Amino acid sequence: MPDFLSLIEAKTNCRFAYFHVPKSRQEYLFESGKADLLISTVKTDKREKSGYFVPLIQLRAALISIKGHNFSIQSAKDLIEKKALRLVVVRGYDYGPVYQRIVEEMNRLGRLTIESDPISVGRTMQNNANYVTIMAPTLFMGLVQTEVILTNLIGKLSFDKLDDLPWNESGIYISTLSLSLEDQNYLRSQLEKNAMTDMIWKSYANYYSPEVLKLGLRRREQSHEH
């Protein structure tokens, strides 16, 4: 995403300032009109109330666990029936209605832990291999590859597709609250024009393995595929 926005900066008068905050705080700032963009985020009905969405890529969340378990999980039902397993998620993450139902059910069963950021999710899994998470594989692997505290997870993770979880559009929300209509339209035109190029996909391919990309990411124009 920074690569993509740097490209926009090079071609336009736009300049982007980044502030590192927890996901729940990021959501609040955007919804209250105190942030101009919500980046690397999935399209949801809730977010539509605060901004205009520009899709850049399609992603699918996957079940991520520590290798060594003797189980096969292919659906939410499988996860819920494995009573020894606990789910750890990031507050504010949303991969659609099915994801929310899984979180709600695991919470009802007393098997849910909520953390403020994905690094804490990784730490929880390090400390207890009975914890699994549901997250975009690229997001989690990006942290494992760059955060020293998580690098010992490299080569120890399993990624499993859950049949219930659909592909989601992921991209950038432009605030309709904090920006003038002129700025909204200009940003929208620039983002959409550059989103039509292969730049985003090539950037992801530079960072992640083919296996992770195949499971959790595809080009935005592949929406007609299953």
In quaternary terms, these chains amount to single chain
Q: Tell me the overall shape.
A: globular
| Percent of sequence in beta strands | 15-25%
Mean pLDDT: 91
Physical arrangement of strands within the biggest beta sheet: 5-4-6-3-7
Q: Which terms would index this structure?
A:
four-stranded antiparallel sheet; 226 residues; alpha+beta
Structure description:
- This protein has ten helices and nine strands.
- 41% of the residues lie in helices and 22% in strands.
- The radius of gyration is 18 Å and the shape is globular.
- The protein is of the alpha+beta class.
- The chain has helices at residues 2-11, 23-31, 45-48, 76-81, 97-108, 118-127, 137-146, 181-195, 199-207, 210-216; strands at residues 37-42, 51-59, 62-66, 86-90, 112-115, 131-135, 157-160, 168-175, 217-219.
- Strands 5-4-6-3-7 form a five-stranded mixed β-sheet, sandwiched between helices. Strands 1-8-2-9 form a four-stranded antiparallel β-sheet.
Summed up:
This protein is α+β, with helices and mostly antiparallel strands and 226 residues long. 41% of the residues lie in helices and 22% in strands.
Topology at a glance:
Blueprint: H1 2-11, H2 23-31, E1 37-42, H3 45-48, E2 51-59, E3 62-66, H4 76-81, E4 86-90, H5 97-108, E5 112-115, H6 118-127, E6 131-135, H7 137-146, E7 157-160, E8 168-175, H8 181-195, H9 199-207, H10 210-216, E9 217-219
